[in-house]
Design goal:
By secondary structure, the protein is of the alpha/beta class. It is about 40% helix and about 15% strand. The chain has 14 helices and 14 strands.
Length: about 325
């Protein structure tokens, strides 16, 4: 079995590749598992060294839209595609053309390339909870269920919602086996900050644990829906595995989430690393950032994901401890 991961050199793409390679085989659409022969990691930069050392990995570098238009991928024999590559929220608000090219034009080109294979490959599309948004002048968002009508309030969310609809239509036509999933904000991400407006939800944990200051641009009472990297990857894989009957409707599903607040996140950090850690948080609200984050759902229903056997994280403290255990080289403070 050959698999393509767009955004494969990024944090989640690389983590997904490691999970698939460690498993060694994958069941698609409820069929018996087959050995994974090749994982193609498509991204602007090279894949991490540990993945390149695996003979089953091929790194394809370049602009994804250009690669797709040249039909450099997906190649014949591709059974599954995980489409994780995207320009993120703040980038899309700052640069409209970048968002349209990266999130809309590229997704359409990938769907056309999969259609051209003529083999109906499984395509897992990483959408976003940013498809939900609080409309101006309307009451605050309540519980966002799988079937809640999306009302995105930013370019990123609009582009992701269009992507969901394209995936659904290409699946309806039998060109692909489409699976759109809506991950919640992933925290804690290692490494350097990305351009996402929600990036501080990792930075406010990652930087203090490393002994560095971190800015928190929203108030403590801001609600957020979060998931650890582990739970997020489980959702991507399970989406590919689900039979058509298990998956049900062609519409997107919400992946499992943990409901918390920014203040509760800080309290969990203090439980793990003490007041020395929370003393490194600079609470400096930014009106634009807070307005955007508050427009996203803080409470998410994920009944369809639960029906697939997926679960959320037990607590944010558990997420912080998992990050510290996986990234000991990035932790400078003593843990409790």
């Amino acid at each position: 079995m050959n698999i393509v991961i767009t955004g494969g050199a990024g944090f989640l793409g690389a983590r997904l590749a490691r999970a698939l390679l460690a498993a060694g085989s994958l069941s698609l659409r409820g069929a018996p598992a087959r050995p994974i022969e090749q994982v193609v990691l498509a991204d602007r930069g090279p894949a991490p060294a540990d993945l390149l050392a695996d003979a089953r990995v091929r790194s394809v570098q370049g602009d994804l839209l250009d690669l797709l238009r040249r039909r450099d991928l997906p190649t014949a024999g591709t059974a599954a595609v995980f489409h994780l590559a995207a320009a993120v929220s703040a980038e899309c608000e700052a640069d409209f053309e970048l968002g349209m090219r990266s999130n809309l034009d590229t997704t359409r080109a990938l769907l056309d390339a999969c259609r051209a294979l003529g083999t109906c490959p499984v395509l897992v599309f990483a959408s976003s909870l940013a498809v939900f948004g609080q409309q101006p002048g309307q009451p605050p968002l309540g519980l966002m269920r799988d079937d809640t009508l999306p009302t995105p309030q930013g370019s990123y969310g609009i582009q992701k919602y269009i992507g969901e609809q394209l995936v659904a239509d290409y699946a309806r036509k039998g060109f692909i086996a489409g699976r759109s999933v809506r991950p919640v904000t992933v925290s804690v991400r290692p490494g350097r900050p990305n351009g996402a407006a929600s990036g501080f939800l990792s930075g406010m944990i990652r930087e203090p644990l490393a002994g560095e200051r971190a800015r928190v641009p929203v108030a403590p009472d801001v609600p957020v829906a979060l998931s650890s990297p582990t739970r997020t990857i489980e959702g991507f894989v399970r989406a590919a595995q689900a039979s058509d009957a298990e998956w049900g409707q062609r519409t997107a599903i919400n992946l499992p989430s943990l409901r918390t607040t920014v203040g509760e996140m800080a309290a969990a950090l203090e439980k793990v690393a003490g007041k020395e850690a929370t003393a490194l948080l600079d609470w400096q609200p930014d009106a634009a950032t807070e307005r955007l984050i508050r427009s996203w759902p803080g409470e998410v229903g994920w009944d369809r994901a639960r029906g697939l056997g997926l679960a959320n994280d037990a607590s944010f403290e558990a997420i912080v401890r998992e990050y510290a255990a996986e990234n000991p080289q990035a932790v400078r403070l003593a843990l409790r």
